[in-house]
Design brief:
five-stranded mixed beta sheet, three-stranded antiparallel beta sheet, about 270 residues, alpha+beta, 12 strands, 6 helices
């Protein structure tokens, strides 16, 4: 069990150790293997994998004789190696099962995103204008547009980076212990890991309490900008193709944690 600073967390740690409460934390970083420290220089700040401008720290030759290293990438978005523990890893004293309570249409138009990005460039804004991401705001926006799936960007609404679509996931506690669960929503984009495309994108999360044997519904919303790709020049373009929408981690599914996925075509 990873507890950070035990002296600070001691009060909360006791109930976990003695089973009065069940853990529900998730790793907020990737735990790299020890070989990672020898692969990439601390002076190489690139997140994406690829050729490095610096030699590997493991090279013992004089600097001029050391070949430049290959950066394996950093964070859950770009690290191409096998992590000791991945971002989002976390277990429980009970077990969970995920199922879809509601899924959107299998196709999603990126037209509103292209309009948003064009407006972003035309107005010289640094950040995309944010729109609604909450359930209540999204429900109101979908009611206005009448689409049932795509965002706030109807003719009567300003171009904003709101929810592109929504998923409702049923979280069932299949064990015998009342516990919290943190549902993580990821997008795996087309061509993930190639030419600077992220391996995955965390688009949302929610922590819920689920009594043993009961089911709670969680709704998460990918934003329009989650379907955009950042170019080498720093701009954004709509990234079309087949996405895999995942809830939970494959690495924790074998330990009784929830995991489910759905295919979505963005065009």
């Amino acid at each position: 069990m990873h507890v950070g600073f035990p002296a600070v967390a001691a009060i909360g740690l006791g109930p976990l150790l003695y089973g009065a409460r069940s853990p529900a934390g998730r790793l907020v970083q990737t735990i790299y293997p020890k070989e990672f420290a020898a692969q990439v220089s601390i002076f190489d700040m690139n997140m994406r994998p690829g050729p490095s401008a610096f030699p590997a720290p493991s090279c013992t030759l004089p600097r001029a004789q050391c070949p430049n290293a290959t950066n394996p990438g950093r964070t859950h978005r770009f690290y191409t190696g096998k992590a000791v523990l991945p971002f989002g890893f976390g277990l429980s004293y009970t077990t969970f099962k995920y199922s879809f309570a509601r899924v959107p249409a299998r196709t999603l138009s990126l037209g509103p995103l292209r309009q948003l990005l064009a407006n972003h460039v035309a107005t010289g804004r640094i950040f995309l204008r944010k729109g609604a991401r909450s359930g209540a705001d999204l429900a109101g926006a979908l009611g206005r547009t009448g689409t049932g799936r795509t965002s706030l960007n109807g003719a009567d609404a300003p171009l904003t980076d709101g929810a592109a679509t929504s998923y409702s996931v049923s979280v069932t506690n299949t064990g015998g212990v009342d516990a919290d669960d943190v549902v993580l929503g990821f997008l795996e984009p087309p061509d993930a890991g190639a030419d600077g495309v992220p391996l995955q994108i965390l688009f949302g999360f929610e922590r819920v309490h689920v009594p043993a044997g009961q089911t709670v519904s969680v709704t998460l919303y990918p934003a329009l900008s989650d379907f955009a790709l950042v170019t080498p020049g720093g701009g954004r373009v709509a990234h079309s193709g087949e996405y895999t929408v995942r809830f939970g981690l494959r690495e924790t599914a074998e330990h009784g944690m929830g995991f489910i996925q759905h295919k979505l075509i963005a065009h």
